[in-house]
Design brief:
- The structure is a single chain.
- This protein is mainly beta and 112 residues long.
- It has helices spanning 6-11, 57-60, and strands spanning 14-24, 33-38, 44-49, 64-68, 74-76, 79-81, 84-85, 87-89, 96-98.
- It is built from 2 helices and 9 strands.
- A 5-stranded antiparallel β-sheet has the order 3-2-1-4-7. A two-stranded antiparallel sheet has the order 5-6.
- The model has no long low-confidence stretch (mean pLDDT 96).
């Protein structure tokens, strides 16, 4: 485990967003979805997410997720991924369980 400081952690912007659109990312090397996520005042940001083993694309629309919003964008095949959606890998499987708030929160809210 690599230690970090509280200052490093607090520079990372982690926010709640609502998935507006999800589609299969056919050009990704590993099975993934293209996601369009609304972060309120930050606008709609795109993400590539390897969450196909657990979630169907149509079930993701409307779901609130937690994502890092201030990492630099990454080019993945022909898609620019602007945020990192957070989840927990399930050991021994290809599944990733998305981090989600357990109650309704305003989109764009920063995790504290």
């Amino acid at each position: 485990m690599t230690e970090t400081t509280a200052e490093d952690f607090f520079r990372t912007e982690i926010r709640a967003g609502r998935i507006e659109r999800a589609e299969v990312f056919a050009k990704a090397r590993k099975p993934a979805y293209k996601l369009w996520i609304d972060f309120g005042e930050l606008g709609v940001k795109r993400s590539s997410a390897q969450i196909t083993a657990r979630y169907a694309a149509e079930d993701l629309v409307g779901r609130t997720v937690i994502a890092v919003t201030n990492f630099p964008p990454r080019q993945i095949a022909d898609f620019m991924s602007e945020v990192l959606v957070l989840g927990v890998p399930v050991e021994g499987t290809d599944e990733v369980v998305l981090l989600t708030p357990d109650a309704e929160v305003p989109i764009g809210s920063r995790v504290a």
